[in-house]
Amino acid sequence: MIAKNRFQIKSFTNPSGVQVHRVEGRLSNGERVRQNFKTEREAQVHKAELEIKSLNLSVAMGLKPTRLTDTQLGEAEAAYRKLGDKSLAAAVEFYLNNYIEPVSDKTIQEAYDEFMLAKGTQNRRQATISDLKCRVGLLVQHYGGKLVSQVSSDDLSRVIFQPGIESQTQKHRRTKIGQFFNWSVKKQYCLRNPIDSVEIPVVEDSEPQVYDLCEVRALLKAAKAYKAGKLLPYFCLALFAGLRPAELKRVPWSSIKLPERIIRIEGKTAKRRKRRIVEISDNLVAWLLPYVGKPIVVTNWAKDFNAVRRMAGFKGSTFSVGDEGRKAWIADGLRHTSLTNHLALHESEGRTARWGGIHRIPVLSSGVKTKATF
Fold first, then answer.
1. Closest Cα partner for 73 from 32, 34, 28, 33?
2. Assign residue 2 a region: left if phi > 0, alpha if psi is -120 to 50, beta otherwise?
3. Strand pairing partners for 99?
4. Which domains, from first to last, does the chain contain?
5. How far apart (Å, rounded) are the C-alpha atoms in residues 205 and 291?
6. Which residue from 132, 206, 112 is spatially nearest to 168, judged by alpha carbons?
7. Which tens digits make up the pLDDT trace of 306-341?
C-alpha cells in the first residue's frame, strides 16, 4: 500500500524575525526533503509536487522484484551515493570482517577470581581446582592487569612455551588456559578464544616404565613387613587392580566385593567421574582378606610410603638424603605394571582399556605373557 501525506507544512518564525512555511518529509526512496517558502501557497504547491513525485517513485519501485522495504531501499540508495563507484557488497564484507562487538571490560585478575569462584561452586574435585589455579594462575602472574579482550595468542604462547617446560606440561597449560578463555567468551569478556591460534604442543608417546617381577616381590614383601602390613592393601590394589592413586584415596571397602571378585569404582571415585567394574584375581583376594576394613590410605601416608620404598631398595622421594645408589622410583609405575600384565595375560587392548578406565592403551610391550603370582 502506497503511503500518503509523506510531507508536512510547518509555519514558524526564523531567528531573523521573518515568518516562513517549511515543507519537510521523505521521498519513498528515503531521501529527506526540507525547504522553506515565504508564503503558505508556495509551500502547498511544493508539497503537492512532492507527493506526486513520491507516488511515482513508489509505483516505479514496486514494479522491481525485491524483498526490501521502502525504507531499506532508501538506505541502500543513500549508501550507493556515499560509496560512489565502489561496491556496496564489498563495503558490507569489509564491515563484517572488521567490526568488533562491544565486550565487558574485565582484567585477567578480575576474570580469574570470578572463574575460580564459579568452578568452586560446580562440584569440582579439589585436584581439578588446584590444577586450574596453578595453570591459569600463570596468566595472572604475567598479565593480571591486562583486559581479557586484549590478550593475544602471542601473549599466551609466551606463557605456555616457557623455556625448559616439557611438551606434556605445555599441552596441559594450553588446555586449562583454553578453558578459561572459553568461559570468558561466554561471559562476553572477549569475542573469541585466542588459544585457537596457539599451536598444540607435540607430545611423543613413549613406552611406560614398569617394575619387573623381582621388584614387585620386593615391594610386596616390604609392604607386608612394614608396621604389620599397614600399606599392603594400597600396594596390592595398585599392582593387581590397577587403581589410580586418587582412586585408592577414595575407594571404600564397601566397593571391594571379594566374594564376587570385583571392585565397583563409582563416579564419585573414578577419574572423569565415569564408573567401572574392575574384575580382580584370586591372588589379590588372598592378599586382601587379612586386611579387610583397615584404612587403604593411612594417616601420614607419604612418610610410610617412602619408608616401604626404601625397604624395597628404591629411593624414598625425589629429594631424599642418603638414597645414593638406590633404584629410582617410577612415576605411576605400580599402575603401569598392572596394566602391562593385564594386557599380556588377556591380549586384548579393549578389555584392558575398559578394565583400567582409560581411553586407549599406551605402548606396553614389556609385559610378561604369563600370569604372575607375585
1. 28
2. beta
3. none
4. 7-92 (no CATH), 108-197 (1.10.150.130), 213-356 (1.10.443.10)
5. 38
6. 206
7. 999 999 999 887 555 667 778 888 888 999 999 999
